[in-house]
Amino acid sequence: MPPSAIPEPGVRPSEFRFHCIDCGHLSDSTSPDYRCPRCGDLLEISFPEWNKSGLSSRASGVSANDLKSTWKQRRLSSAPADLSGVWRFRELLPALNDGYVVTLREGNTPLYEMPQCARIAGVPHLAAKHQGMNPTGSFKDAGMTVAASFAHHAGYRWIACASTGNTSASMAAYAARGGMRSLVLVPEGKISWSKLSQALDYGALTCQLRTDFDGCLRLLQELVLRAPVHQLNSINPFRIEGQKTLAIELMEQMEWQPPDHIIVPGGNLGNSSAIGKALLEMRNLGLISRLPKLSIIQAEGANALVRTLREAGGKRLISVSAETRATAIRIGNPASWKKATRVLEATGGACEQVSEVEMAQAKAEIGAEGIGCEPASAVTLAGLKKLVKQGFVKAGETVVLILTGNLLKDPDFTMEFHRGDLFAGSPHESEMTALSMLRRPPIVLDATLDEVLRTLEQADKTAPSG
Ligand code: F0G
User: Fold this and answer.
1) Fewest CB atoms within 10 A around its CB: which of 2, 216, 228, 348?
2) Is residue 395 part of a domain?
3) Using 50, 70 and 90 to split pLDDT, how confident is the model at 100?
4) What is the pTM of this model?
5) What span, in angstroms and rounded, lies between the C-alpha atoms of 454 and 196?
């Protein structure tokens, strides 16, 4: 089978460098672990020409308005890179020297109005950008198309990641599309079957390690120094570049009028870092005139960033031993904590935590809106309720939630919730009775018309009013 990478002559070579987020060291190349050769901290991609050219875009000197109309026009094109909701914004991405793009038509995700959830949260206007509508069902695809394309271009045979499930599903798909092999390291028993099954079907070599996500990531960091595998976790700064486009596309969908708040779940903290980087770059390039506040919500049982900010003033990471049913964000030692801390500072955002029950309730409420998401994504609505109560989100302010994963990613959680046995035998069990109004358990009946009619009539009497 020939690799299905797509030559894309429209992608221009661009000037970018690797910039250490701590010591500021600049370089043109990196080591396989994507760590600063001087101090060992994380790297980010910087575009030196942008700083020189101020409001105009890099090199070509086109204005912010030119960029906006170019991106709009590409919606009419059928070129593969233009059909991608990531590569459509390629002027703000590091471009490939030889122009190879591995794409599954990622991005182009919907921005949904959420009137019922707005009422519940107590805000006049709420929308959700649903990254779970990406090809493999999560926001990871936006970053993966960029990182996988660069890995493919560099000629890597193997790409690898540690994952709580979504990264591995996405990476396996892009590896297959780019003619590469993929190695997946996941914590045994702690990822959903849906995600695991995706990696298997896309052909990954899938290893379930007897450890947690943090243990998998530690092992991967050592592995890439010993074996010719290329790591595609969000430590890889190309992933961050791709994930930036979520925010660019969101601004385009909002006619370049930023909302007052964007709220995102926090796990390994790559996504919040990417959204923050995009917002700052868009402001610096004159694409938007003000910054939304970007807030990060974590599960109480995986609250490393919350504790890092509250107990150490954001100066050093406080790791935790993570435990939550939102397995996607069951992470205790987030790699990008420093980037995320800076993004919160730069945008004036908040960092909050929510309980397991608050998350389960919010997930059911997002589902009842006809949208749905996986548990980790639902922390955004649960967090918003808290931020409204605290007065951080004020009356009249506009809010966008980032829903990171599709409802179908974790059917066990959803089924257990509706059957009423989510958290059975745990300390949260008694709190769940308060949520019984949200439950819609399946009903087993004899296959007779009478039985179904009687059930329908009963339900009609008790149906919640719209
Ligand atoms: N939401 C979902 C659905 C996720 O899968 C993840 C992370 C997050 C939120 C948190 O994003 O790590 O950028 O802060 N999932 C990773 C994975 C860790 O391996 O799939 P983050």
Assistant:
1) 2
2) yes
3) confident
4) 0.95
5) 41
